[in-house]
Design a protein that fits this description.
The structure is a homodimer. By secondary structure, chain A is α/β, with parallel strands linked by helices. The first copy, chain A, has two domains: 195 residues, Alpha-Beta Complex (Quinone Oxidoreductase, Chain A, domain 1), CATH 3.90.180.10; 136 residues, Rossmann fold (3-Layer(aba) Sandwich). Chain A is 30% helix and 26% strand. Chain A is built from twelve helices and 19 strands. In chain A, strands 3, 5, 6, 9, 10, 18 and 19 form a seven-stranded mixed beta sheet that branches. In chain A, strand 14, helix 9 and strand 15 form a beta-alpha-beta unit. The first copy, chain A, is globular and about 60 Å long. Chain A starts with a strand and ends with a strand. Chains A and B meet through strand 15, strand 16, helix 10 and strand 17 of A and strand 15, strand 16, helix 10 and strand 17 of B.
């Protein structure tokens, strides 16, 4: 079969790769219904994260179970499943406390931009839907696998609740779905930071009440102005840069909550600054598995449409165009159809 | 009157200073019952924090109201009061949300190692006791003013609750009272990190179930060993150095809580490390005012004896010896009697 491999900066190839096989009794093989390109794929694509060898790409997935290992009990061939980018046993102490993305047996998914993939720890990782989903529901179920689960974690980790004043830093797919998540959790005011018209529009449709186009000190000043000089209860940092993190910390009120869900690149926190800011900080790779059953339920009941972040829909073999479109911000997120 | 002034590294003088006066209608003047030397006073005393001019010292206090400004309503002359090192109006948005040490009108106390002092924002800052306390109770009430309130915040900010496994990094007065606080909040296991015999003993008396003398990587390994490889639910960092912070972050389980309550000196956090550690981080200058009524109540009812951290009891005029004894770790904490 052919799959996606990154060779170096801006060098994505769709080429012959080995077909996945059951390697352990706990594995499953799935046929992907849809896959996509993630904002985090752009770090190595842009050369910000070095690529030392040809690297198979893709970690967002949903699809049909083709085959399972001999000990797999909770899913069976023919079922439709969604899993997280972090494969987890869902039984270790970290998983039981809701941190499946720090599972003691954790493995990262890395070959999902392909027609078939192997899922390790299938019993812990995969969540089946009750029925086979309609075609129209596939993009939203795919979003649950990472961007929605990550946006949801951003809102949860920043303690968003009924009545909260929320700021979302970052207007990528995760930031936009963090807006949707904050809305679902009852936030009263959701301020999206964005200077991109199409993204501002989608943010408003997902629940943003205010848009702030300013950045850095001007952006912080604008947030203070919008919150009567107090700062926000919750700030969701969905980028992963030093600038975004500074924006987030300084936009929160003392005692407020800052979450950060994009892998930090070059982020250093000054101890005294975070100390006197009085903020709560929590983040990390989103424990998407914790939220999957609830998110799938919301999607299947059509209460949320996270799949709307996909504004480019192309055949899998055109994956290189998906990367390029996202890199150049021509697309928010590229859906790939095997 | 004579008060305490720091002139430079290791140069503490007890010398003539102006008597405090009511400067604003919201002020009060109190006669100190007792005062003390704080671990944080050692930063400038040791020259780690520069001293550019003669600096009046002391920020822990309790005593008798002598005089109040014309608008002060909640305390009156003759009453015994306890206040926090952060003076606050207790009515601004940050105060109402429990972060009085980030009050919009905040002022820092800085002249408490003296017989009399001025307290700003008296209505918001001072909490009177129902009756005049016994002499034996004074050290514990003084502790409530900072070290107990700070240890309590450490436990609260690190989400300590019934059944928690807790690690306390730092065996100064704050660390020891963080142990006491964790015990009060129902922690099941409290691991105190200390290599000092007298402090280990007091930690055990305050509720520590285990003592770890190892530091750095060996200390982290020992915590992992004591927690079945999982890490602690809550880690209370009561020092303020890079080593202590690293110890704390690496001792917590994924999803665990790290609090930090000592002003960080030279602490830098690596974004990727905190991200993948999956910890919650919260700290800052303790909002002691939030806890004062409850802490005073526990002390007056003799349910806790935080004053036991004072193992040196000297006349105020010998304040220089108090600093020296704490600097050389001959004393945990020096009580000063005006």
């Amino acid at each position: 079969m052919r799959g996606t491999v990154l060779y170096g900066s801006k060098d994505i190839r769709f080429e012959e790769v080995p077909e996945p096989k059951i390697e352990k009794m706990t594995d499953a093989i799935i046929r992907l219904a849809v896959s996509c390109v993630c904002g985090s794929d752009l770090w190595p694509y842009r050369g910000i994260q070095s690529v030392t060898e040809p690297t198979p790409m893709g970690h967002e997935y949903c699809g049909y179970v083709e085959e399972v290992g001999s000990t797999v009990k909770s899913v069976k061939p023919g079922q439709f499943v969604v899993g997280s980018f972090a494969m987890s046993d869902n039984t270790c102490p970290h998983c039981r406390l809701g941190y499946q993305s720090s599972c003691q047996q954790r493995e990262w998914v890395s070959r999902a931009q392909a027609p078939y993939m192997r899922v390790a720890l299938a019993d812990g990782t995969l969540v089946p839907t009750a029925d086979l989903p309609s075609k129209g529901m596939l993009p939203s179920l795919l979003a649950a696998s990472d961007v929605l689960g990550t946006g949801w974690f951003a809102a949860d980790a920043a303690n968003v609740k009924k009545g909260s004043t929320v700021v979302v830093v970052g207007d990528g797919a995760v930031g936009l779905l963090a807006v949707l998540s904050a809305k679902q959790m009852g936030a009263e005011r959701i301020i999206a930071m964005s200077r991109h018209e199409a993204r501002q529009k989608l943010a408003r449709e997902f629940g943003a009440t205010d848009i702030v186009a300013e950045r850095s000190d001007a952006g912080i000043a604008r947030i203070k102005e919008l919150t009567n000089g107090i700062g926000a209860d919750s700030v969701l940092e969905c980028v992963g840069t030093q600038e975004a993190m500074q924006q987030a910390i300084q936009s929160a009120r003392p005692g407020g909550f800052v979450s950060y869900v994009g892998v930090p690149h070059g982020v250093e926190l000054d101890g005294q600054q975070t100390f006197f800011s009085h903020v709560h900080l929590h983040g990390g790779p989103a424990p998407v598995r914790r939220y999957l059953p609830a998110l799938i339920d919301l999607i299947v009941k059509d209460k949320i449409q996270p799949g709307r972040v996909f504004d480019l829909d192309i055949p899998l073999e055109q994956v290189a165009e998906g990367y390029a479109a996202m890199d150049e911000r021509r697309a928010i997120k590229a859906l790939l159809r095997p």
